């Protein structure tokens, strides 16, 4: 089981992903951890596939505050 991260820790993780200074394997692992710590389904898509070009802060706000009926 993965450790539950705080919102601040999730933001720091997403910022690391945005920096693109990790191997593909490290990015994949970081995205998995991110997705395990937020309620937004497929949260990694907010980073890589969202047409809005969201900042790390926006990604975390959307993913962290997601309610099941919103999407």
Which key terms come to mind for this protein?
mainly alpha; globular
What is the gist of this entry?
It contains four helices and no strands.
Shape: globular
Largest sheet composition: none
Order of helices and strands: HHHH
Classify the beta-strand content into a percent band: under 5%
Please count the beta strands (DSSP E, at least 2 residues each).
0
Number of domains: 1
Q: Portion of residues in helices?
A: 55-70%
In the predicted model, the low-confidence regions spanning at least 5 consecutive residues are none
End-to-end separation in angstroms reads 26 Å
Tally of contiguous helical segments: 4
Radius of gyration: 11 Å
Helix-and-strand structural type: mainly alpha
The averaged pLDDT comes out at 93
Structure description:
This protein has 71 residues and is mainly alpha-helical. It has one domain. Helix content is 56%, strand content 0%. It contains four helices and no strands. The protein has helices spanning 7-19, 24-36, 44-48, 56-64. Helix 1 (7-19) runs antiparallel to helix 2 (24-36) and helix 1 crosses helix 4. The radius of gyration is 11 Å and the shape is globular. The termini are far apart. 18% of the residues are buried. The mean pLDDT is 93.
């Amino acid at each position: 089981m993965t450790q539950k991260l705080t919102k601040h820790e999730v933001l720091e993780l997403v910022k690391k992903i945005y920096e693109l200074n990790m191997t593909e394997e490290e990015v994949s692992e970081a995205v998995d951890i991110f997705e395990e710590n937020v309620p937004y389904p497929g949260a990694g898509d907010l980073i890589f596939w969202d047409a809005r070009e969201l900042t790390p802060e926006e990604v975390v706000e959307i993913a962290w505050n997601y309610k099941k009926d919103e999407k």
